[in-house]
C-alpha cells in the first residue's frame, strides 16, 4: 500500500536560518496521517459522527538532512506496532527529499479519544484492521 503524500514546502515552513523549521516536520507528518485516515473513510466528519478522534502521547523527530523553501518532499507512514484492538499505535513517518534521501523521521505514539467521556476508547474494527494493513516499519541497520 502506497500511502505517501507529496508536498512543496512553503515560506511559512521556514525558520530564520533558511531551512524548514522543526515544527513543520510534525505538521507534514500529521497531514499525511489525516490524509490516510480520510482515504480509509475516517475524515473529520466521520470522526465527529463517531464522537472520537486520534490523539498523540509522544512525538519525536530525528533530523537528518536540511529541507529548503520550495523543495518537494514526500511523506509516508509505516506501522511500528498496534494493540490487537487498535486502541494504541505507533507510526513512523519518513520525510524524503525529492532525490529520495531521508530528511527526517517523525515517530508518534497515539490512541483514540472518546470525545464525550474524554477517555481512551477502541476504534471501530475496520479502522483497527486498516492500521494493520499499513506497511510495517523496519529500523535501518546500524
TrEMBL record:
Gene3D superfamilies named in the record: Hotdog Thioesterase
The residues that cross the membrane are none
A Pfam family = 4HBT_2
Q: What InterPro entries has UniProt attached to this entry?
A: 4-hydroxybenzoyl-CoA_TE, HotDog_dom_sf
Q: CDD domains given for it?
A: 4HBT
**PANTHER family noted in UniProt:** 4-HYDROXYBENZOYL-COA THIOESTERASE FAMILY MEMBER, LONG-CHAIN ACYL-COA THIOESTERASE FADM
Q: What is this protein called?
A: Thioesterase family protein
Source organism per UniProt: Hymenobacter humi
Amino acid at each position: 500500500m502506497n500511502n505517501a503524500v507529496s508536498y512543496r514546502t512553503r515560506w511559512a515552513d521556514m525558520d530564520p536560518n533558511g531551512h524548514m523549521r522543526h515544527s513543520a516536520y510534525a505538521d507534514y507528518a500529521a497531514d499525511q496521517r489525516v490524509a490516510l485516515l480520510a482515504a480509509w473513510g475516517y475524515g473529520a466528519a466521520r470522526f465527529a459522527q463517531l464522537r472520537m478522534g486520534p490523539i498523540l502521547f509522544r512525538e519525536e523527530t530525528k533530523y537528518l538532512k536540511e529541507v529548503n523553501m520550495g523543495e518537494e518532499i514526500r511523506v509516508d507512514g509505516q506501522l511500528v506496532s498496534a494493540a490487537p484492538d487498535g486502541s494504541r499505535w505507533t507510526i513512523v513517518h519518513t520525510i524524503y527529499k525529492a532525490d529520495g534521501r531521508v530528511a527526517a523521521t517523525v515517530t508518534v505514539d497515539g490512541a483514540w479519544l472518546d470525545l464525550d467521556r474524554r477517555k481512551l476508547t477502541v476504534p471501530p474494527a475496520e479502522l483497527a484492521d486498516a492500521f494493520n494493513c499499513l506497511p510495517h516499519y523496519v529500523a535501518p541497520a546500524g
